[in-house]
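Hey, quick one: can you model this chain's 3D structure?
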Amino acid sequence: MGQERVFQMPLSKIYPLLAAKAEKKGRSREEVDAVIQWLTGYAPSELRRLLETDIPYGAFFQNAPRMHPDRRLIWGTICGVRVEEIQDPLLRDIRCLDKLIDELARGKPLETILRRREPPNV
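Sure thing. Here's the predicted structure for all 122 residues.
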């Protein structure tokens, strides 16, 4: 799927996929929401409101109240691509969320996922 297509997909279509990935591994939507809120700075009520709209996924990130400054420390592979090597800032933010949800689904404690990360020695 091309990045422009991902940017244009409605958040309301992508969110259930993120939640399902976590839920099938025994995690909750509340944990998914906590990860999204940590990364983007959206308040719970704002996130719920946006999920009822057709806001494009790219715009959801571009309009985020406060992207977490520690997101630049998120590293690792998601979909065969190293997050820290993604040049497009919007695509990198999207892949950061994918990586965090992947960690949640793999059973990492929420406290570990949301703490400050140290990048690998490169």
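One thing worth noting: The first strand starts at residue 77 and ends at 78.
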